[in-house]
Amino acid sequence: MSVRRVGVIAKEGLTAAAPHLAAVAGWLHARGVETVFEIKSAALAGLSNEPTLARDQLIAQVDLLLVLGGDGTMLGTAARVGEAGLRTPILGVNFGRLGFLTEVTLEELYPELEAVLEGRSQIHERRLLHATTLRAGQPRAEHVVLNDVVVTRGEVSRVIELSVNVDDRFVTRVKADGIIIASPTGSTAYNLAASGPIVHPEVDAILITPIAPHTLANRPIVIPGSATVDVAPLDTGRGLDIFSTFDGQSGHRLEATDSVRIRRAKSPVCLISSTSRGYFDTLREKLGWGN
Question: Would you state the pLDDT for residue 287?
C-alpha cells in the first residue's frame, strides 16, 4: 500500500489530542507524506496552515485515515467509508483504555505509522451491515454500520414484542427489552453485554441477540452472513414506544407499519491492527482472561 496523503480525524472536543495532531503532521511531513485534516480537528489543534476538508469529502481524498479518539469515533468514520463504498484503510488510535476497534495505543502511534509506510502493517477486512428502515414496505432510511443495529424499547415502555424473519421466513416472536443484530466485529460490543456470543471477525456471520428476554426460549443465534434479517414491531394495543439505533451513532422511532431489514453491506471496511498485538491478545486484556 502506497501512502502519499493521510487524512487526520480526531474526536470532536478531545483537547488531549491537540498536541498530538500537530506532532503527527510534522512527523508525516518529514517523511514526504501530505496531511489533510478534518476541519474541526484542525481547529482543535490550531493548525491554520494545514489543508482541511469536511469529513465526508476527506475520506475520498486520502490513502490512509488516521483516527484519534475512541471506538465511537472509529464507528462514525467506518460508516462513512462504508456508505461511500470506499476501501480507504483506517488506523485508529485510542485515547485512554485499549479499545476493541481503536486497539493502537498512543505510545504505539509512530511505530504503527512507520509500519504502514514501510508496508508492514496488518490490514483486516471487517464486514459491514446495511440496514434499511421500511415504512409500509417502502424504504424510509438507510444506514451502514460496523457493529450493530439495535431495536429497543423507549423510556416509557416496559417490554416490547418484535417479529423476526430470516430470508423471508418467520423465526420467532421476541418479547424483551429489545434485540441486537450484530456483525462479528460488533459481537464484542452491546451484543457481549447482552450475553451474546463472541464471534471472530473473520467469520462470515450475523448475530441475533435478544436483550433481557422474558422467556428462556429466546436465545442468541448465529446465522450465515449471506442472510437477510427483518425485525418488525408488533402492536399489542398498548401503543408503540420503540426505537432503532445504528452503531449507537444515530437512530429514529419506529411506527406500527415500520420494519428494519438488515443484510451484509456490499463492501467491507479495512482496519489496520497493531503489529504487536493480535485479536486474542486484545480479548485477553479487555476481558481479563488468564490474568
Answer: 86
